[in-house]
Design brief:
Elements: E1 2-10, E2 23-29, E3 35-40, E4 49-54, H1 56-60, E5 71-76
Parallel strand pairs: 3-5
Antiparallel strand pairs: 1-2, 1-4, 2-3, 4-5
Protein name: EutN/CcmL family microcompartment protein
Subcellular location: Carboxysome
Pfam family, one: EutN_CcmL
């Protein structure tokens, strides 16, 4: 699991069949400067700190047949 910050949206007008409702977002992984495109079903926004699951764990969130998603926002980090 990764901690990241949402830095922008990735617009896609065409999607593979079976991909659920959600948005593609660009996130920057905290402490690494690495950027990822992730799938978001929570409605996260730019500047929000999030938790990201990757790999087969991300795909397993969805029912069979699993869509081709390998990075998924699974939580929003609350500010103290």
């Amino acid at each position: 699991m990764l901690k990241a910050t949402v830095v922008g949206s990735v617009w896609s007008t065409k999607r593979v069949e079976g991909l659920p409702n959600g948005a593609f977002l660009e996130v920057e992984v905290d402490g690494s400067g690495t950027s990822l495109v992730v799938f978001d079903v929570l409605g996260s926004g730019v500047g929000e700190h999030v938790l990201v699951a990757t790999g087969s764990v991300a795909a397993a969130y969805f029912p069979d047949p699993h869509p081709p998603v390998d990075a998924l926002i699974i939580g929003s980090i609350d500010e103290k």
